[in-house]
Amino acid sequence: MNIYALSSGRGPSGIAIIRLSGKDTLKICQVITKENIIKNKEVNLFKFYDPSTNNLIDEGLLLFFQSPNSYTGDDLAEFHIHGSNAVISLFLDVLSKQANCRMAEPGEFTKIAFQNNKIDLLEAESIGDLIHSETELQRQQALRFIQGNASNYYNSLRDKLIKSLAYIEAKIDFAEDDIPDTVLKDVHTAIEEIYKEIKKTLEDQRVGEKIREGFKVSIIGEVNAGKSSLLNLLSKRNAAIVSEEKGTTRDIIEVYLNLDGYPVILADTAGIRESENNIEKKGIELAINRSKESDLNLIIIDNSSKQVDKKILDLINQDSIVVLNKSDVSNDNSGEYKNNGILISVKNNKNIDKLIDLIKDKLSKKIIDTKNILVSRERHRNKLNLCLLELEKFLEKKQSKEIELAAEDLRMATRHLGAIIGKVDVEEILGSIFKDFCIGK
Ligand SMILES: Nc1nc2c(ncn2[C@@H]2O[C@H](COP(=O)(O)OP(=O)(O)OP(=O)(O)O)[C@@H](O)[C@H]2O)c(=O)[nH]1
Ligand SMILES: [Mg+2]
Asked: Which of 219, 230, 233, 242 gets mutated to test ligand 1 (max ligand atoms within 8 A of its CB)?
């Protein structure tokens, strides 16, 4: 089967790119261009025709990549045509009428690349991440994964496991022969090291996942202090209702921001105070819970407040920034919590740049060393944890007595590690990974 899809964004645009991949690619190209010679890996300037009518569709460029040196590993063509809806529709329609040709599913080009061993599973996922990246940190992380840093790491760990497993299997097969007893001890030491290594990898404060999904920054604080106003200002839109009435916000309102390269999920919450109103009470509970799961809390206090609720003061810690709003109204500096706070005015847009710098500064301290991020998804973390469990079982066993069971532990551990990069047992996870891609990738 040959597959095709529009790989560029929907028009109208100057140029649109349609991809075609499969073993009949060259033949289909010849039919559509009426040309016999189509140069591999070179730019071909051709006219494209509808073979059923002989009518001209458009004129454009054709790039042909012969298998196996293509993105998918199969023969692949790219048609660069004019990006109008009419041209695109007609072109796709013509392709649909060719024998053994159908529209590609989302991510199918990348899936074929994986199946043809052009890329591993980590790289395939990261191509999806790069396409969806919105901030500089996300772009850098996706690119690092595509270049294979993480793949190399997992491959080398897996190789070490396989080597240990081979020793154990040799010991089983040649029990009475001359394999020294120290072998089991050496394997034990090697597995202990791998165990420690994986444990260390998992202690990364989930930075990789946060870069993919966004850091949770939450606006928490006094009623009427200007929390919703701040959210609207930072997100440059009226996402939350602002009013002089106290207790306006009840639900959590989330906006996704690119804060100078940092992906941030910014949340506005209900103001914290003693309230008799049940709905408001629920909102306050949501706010406090949210503060606990945030990477950073902006504790908003009205600078003229003489007394601040203890529940709010209790939230001040190293993962928070105290923000004193309405500096245009009051310049009062009393109150201990004010010493480390930043004085802003949402109304006059005062010190907002400084606040953004502070947020970035706090978040950057969480990013230990982006070069060493090896886990970018929950899927990777789960597999590493499963691998650790098996290694733990292995280390707890008296290997000389339970050698067959110990070998099975290592086999399972190897399998979990392999699943991260897509070696063994991948069918069931394939579907879930590639369905998140867009069509044409
Ligand atoms: N003078 C002054 N007024 C402000 C400033 N920021 C917000 N306000 C006003 O303060 C009032 C409350 O603003 P909101 O943004 O609704 O405050 P909130 O903290 O979300 O309030 P709740 O949702 O009720 O807890 C509105 O009338 C705003 O216009 C500021 O920097 N200076
Ligand atoms: Mg509000």
From this structure: 242
